[in-house]
Design a protein that fits this description.
Distance between the termini: 22 Å
Number of helices: 20
Helix content: 40-55%
CATH superfamily of the largest domain: Vaccinia Virus protein VP39
CATH class of the largest domain: Alpha Beta
Largest sheet: 7 strands, mixed
Shape: globular
CATH architecture of the largest domain: 3-Layer(aba) Sandwich
Strand order of the largest sheet: 5-2-1-6-7-9-8
Strand content: 5-15%
Number of domains: 3
CATH topology of the largest domain: Rossmann fold
Amino acid sequence: MTDLAETDIDMILAESHRDGDFALSTASKADREFADLLERGLGIGAAPHTLDAFAEACRARANALGVLEGDYVRMLSTGGPAARAEWMAVAPAIVVGETFLFRDAQLWQLVETTLMPGLASLGGPVWMWSAGCSTGEEAYTLALLAHRAFGPDGYRVIGTDINPKAIAAARVGVYGQWSLRGVSPVRRVTLCAGGAQTVRVPEDVKTLVRFETHNLNDASNYPPSGMSSFELVVCRNVLIYMTQAAREAIVQRLAACVSPGGVLILGHGEAAGFAVGDLIPERYDAAVVFRKPAVSAIRIAPPPAAPARKAKTDRAQDRKHVAKAPPATRAAFAVPAKPATDKHRCRVLLAEAMAAANAGKMEEAERRAAAAIAAEPIDPEPHVLAGALFMARGALREAETELRRALFLDPVFVPALWQVGNLYGMTNRKRQAIFAFARALAQLEGAPPEAEALPFDHLTVGELTTLLRAEIGEHVDA
């Protein structure tokens, strides 16, 4: 998100007529003018609960900026850079960001076996856009398939979303096990299982995916990042929250970004009732896709290779202080010294359990974790590993038992808080999940970004902090 200091918000507010507070009361939230503002800014329909969330987000931002609520709302309505930045700030409280890797397996089978071979015949690198990518799972799914279909020099992917916290998490490329619920055992081999609690996107794939904030409802944002066109555009389960007028306008803009011969994939029914530019629908069992007629003599060239390489280099430099930093001890998160038991044997068994898990020998890994618990039952770490292994095979009740034991031993043990937060999310206990993530985030505050936060996954404090902020969203102060 654009830094507030870089916007002209002070100038805009100074020019605004300060005739008292707008007073976002119950009556004003239902007002048509307020609903129209939400539709103009984000294209979202004005359901009562949505207006409530919008009003609360505006109130929170106004308080954070030290301005009157009425002035803040008027600033949103003016447009321009300041308003665009603030729409990014309020959007996370309104939009829904549910996604996971390989969501809708039939569709991805269609993309891999039918659509990608056709796109390869167009010549040149295949450029793909995941619009409304949330925390990046869809963009990485595209990249994982493309890496196998086209090779590292044959594609590039950009993922965009209006939520800056989601985009920050997407750039990390690390996910909890809940994001793997759409991944078959065969697909899992394409992912880099970085540890017991998380899964990492392979680095050679991750470097070919770029993420940026983008408001689909803002006509001035097309095409994203100055890109000329894309052979494949995916925008699924995003437009269902928008009004018919906003949906139609966005689809026309997306269609205009498709290269001749390229395709646009929308969610079920999201283009009902209107034509999709000059694209022609193709009906498959898994989905309806829209293809732009090929032009044999003219083809929009992909963006120059040099800027892409520069972006890749910049991203590598941005990660240097995290990815290349020497591993630190977890002393900042260590529990107080326990009575002596068999600590050395516990450490050895934990290492053996992780080695077995990485080799796919999950039953042996569970046995080693159980033996580590027996060796030092008052250490929370082996309980967390056992819980993670249980979660991996869907034994959620057993997993929760072990994680509760870990938190009994140390109520602020970060790996346990992270894992139990994921477990609560998997079992639709959203409030408890946010509370667990918030407690973990509080424990990480002030710790060196390069320090190790998850001992089984070599995840740094900086990386985990980014993921936690995305999970918590606007509830960070709860």
